[in-house]
């Protein structure tokens, strides 16, 4: 998980340094965590197509990650219930 957040934080920071128009505000790792947490943001928003595409990719990958975590927890719960019935 830290590598995942770090990867997107580096991508966003690089994009903000190479294109001053990419985001409304200067970026920090806060932006990546905000996107990961899906809480939304009003103070920082992508403005260029490249920035919007990268943010969209992260949002989609976040959904996959969330689904994988739910699957793992559900599987662990099934195993626990099955062990308890024996």
Report on this model:
The protein has 86 residues and is mainly alpha-helical. The protein has a single domain (2-85), classed as Helix Hairpins, CATH 1.10.287.70. Helices cover 73% and strands 0% of the residues. Helix 1 crosses helix 2. The longest helix has 37 residues, at 49-85. The chain starts with a helix and ends with a helix. The model has no long low-confidence stretch (mean pLDDT 81).
How would you briefly describe this protein structure?
With 86 residues, this protein is mainly α.
SS-derived structural category: mainly alpha
> Which CATH top level class fits?
Mainly Alpha
Topology as a string of helices (H) and strands (E): HHH
Largest sheet: none
Structure summary, number of beta strands: 0
- Total count of helical runs of at least 4 residues: 3
CATH architecture: Orthogonal Bundle
Feature tags:
86 residues, mainly alpha, Helix Hairpins, 3 helices
Secondary structure elements and their pairing?
Layout: H1 2-18, H2 29-37, H3 49-85
């Amino acid at each position: 998980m830290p590598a995942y957040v770090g990867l997107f934080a580096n991508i966003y920071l690089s994009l903000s340094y190479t294109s001053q128009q990419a985001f409304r505000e200067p970026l920090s790792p806060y932006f990546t965590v905000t996107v990961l947490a899906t809480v939304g943001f009003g103070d920082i928003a992508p403005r260029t197509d490249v920035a919007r595409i990268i943010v969209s990719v992260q949002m989609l990958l976040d959904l996959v990650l969330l689904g994988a975590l739910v699957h793992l927890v559900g599987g662990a719960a099934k195993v626990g219930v099955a062990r308890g019935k024996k």
